[in-house]
Amino acid sequence: MTKHSDQTNKSGPDMIYRSFLDRQIFALPKCTKCNQFHFFPRVVCPHCGEFELEWLAVSGKGQVYSTTTIRRKPERGGPYNVCLITLEEGPRMMSRIEGIDAESVKIGDKVTACINNDSEESFVVFTPTKEAN
Amino acid sequence: MAHNLRGSSAIVGVGLAGCGEAHGKMPLDILAEATHNALDDAGLKLSDIDGLFTGSSYHFMPTLSTAEYLGIKPRFSDGSMVGGSSFVAHTLNAAMALKTGLCDVALICYGSNQRTAGGKLATMSEQQIYEAPYKPRYPISSYALAAARHMYQYGTTREQLADIAVAARQWAQLNPAAFARKDLTREDVLNSRMISDPLSLLDCCLVTDGGGAVIMVSSERAKDFPNKPVYLLGTGAAHWHRQITQMPDLTVTAAKESGERAFKMAGVTQNDIDVVEVYDAFTINTLLFLEDLGFCAKGEGGPFVSNGNIAPGGSLPVNTNGGGLSCVHPGMYGIFILIEAIQQLRGDCGARQVNNAEVALVHGNGGVLSSQVTSIFGTEEVL
């Protein structure tokens, strides 16, 4: 896990989060007291109330906690996946799984984060984790 | 020793208006008509109201807009906004205001023209910026994620969820005022258009117009009104998250805590409850709330709702008006579960009347399984 010094500590946590994504780094705030990560980024640790936080890149490994297929009409782009991912580091976030059919996503699937830069604001999506040999 | 709010206030008037379709009417028109009906029911007039409790998806400052429309100048107002559960939450705040003399006649009220205004859910909600890139549908996708997780952990099935919709419809068929009364089978629900897996169209509440109003006073004067008073025995609220991503466990709602608080204040247990009215925006709500409120064990909601327990003639009458699924659901539903519970305890429910109903539990939900508020009401016999 790479530790990043926070060059932008005068910014709020949302700006810091997005500035990391712009640099293609998925980083989250971690509490210096209870050592837990949280998401969405805040100025206070929601686990213990500590205000001293540091930003660290996370592994990007996660597991599908729940999933739904939104049945958008074909003429509007067809069905798409919305899921909740529990990150290896603990926090849970909304995302989608790319690279497989929306309906093939299953709870418990192991997934890996990647940063989607297709729109103006980068955001984190996941792909199925390839099993190691 | 009993809590000092237990039984300290009572509902002496209820009114409905515009349920179904109220063509050409604005939300406050419908709210005012419901208020008129509640005042008639209680034998009061508008100028008697000195406490106002309301919530709205249309008016940013709902107590101001509502009082202005009605031409009243309340001494105490509360526009606490916790989504659809607001009106159940208002019963606690009204009880406190009545007990402390901040007001003498409390009006809890709501109105919406959601259906005839085009069917789109009105909202003043801020965008959830960490969810927006993934385009979830609000609110259904959040409930779908909870349903999928419950299925994964406990083996709950779509058939069991469908049975909740069928039970609600069977109650609605006993309620002439319900909006959806045609026969409904499990297969109809399963075959309805999938929207956000595993929830299909008939797992979702109706989109109707409608308004409701409730008049609450101190128990000391509750017998001065034409109707049998219905007393607030206990109430409790709890919330653990706002966005679905922040819900600690998608199979356990804060109803567990709100329910415990309400039961404790009321001094009753699940066995004492004769009729249950829960906020069924989706079929999964009913199942989660019955579990979290302790009517069945966690994970056993599926079998519990599937063997006829909650349908007419079952062991636990649930959503006796037909619920948000089949009776009425104009954006926010909380006021309607209150009104149905009061009518059941007054014995006013005709074909759907639960025999000898003396204690009713009302459970409101707001946001995306976020705000949970439980109120327990009883007749004079259980005070």
Helix and strand content put the structural class of chain A at mainly beta
Q: Largest interface, and how many residues on either side?
A: A-B, 26 and 26 residues
What general outline of chain B do the C-alpha atoms trace?
globular
CATH topology of the largest domain in chain B: Peroxisomal Thiolase, Chain A, domain 1
The profile of the biggest β sheet of chain B is: 9 strands, mixed
Q: What is the CATH third-level topology name of the largest domain in chain A?
A: OB fold (Dihydrolipoamide Acetyltransferase, E2P)
Shape of chain A: globular
Low-confidence stretches of chain B: none
The total of helices of chain B stands at 11
CATH class of the largest domain in chain A: Mainly Beta
Strand content of chain A: 25-35%
Order of helices and strands of chain A: HEEEEEEE
Model description:
The complex is a heterodimer of chains A (133) and B (383). In chain A, strand 4 (80-87) and strand 5 form a beta hairpin. With 133 residues, chain A is mainly β. Chain A contains one helix and seven strands; from the N terminus they run H-E-E-E-E-E-E-E. Chain A has two domains: 13-57, no CATH class; 61-128, OB fold (Dihydrolipoamide Acetyltransferase, E2P), CATH 2.40.50. Chain B has 383 residues and is α/β, with parallel strands linked by helices. Chain B is built from eleven helices and eleven strands. Chain B has a nine-stranded mixed beta sheet with strand order 3-2-4-7-1-8-11-10-9, with helices on both faces. The chains are: A mainly beta (133), B alpha/beta (383).
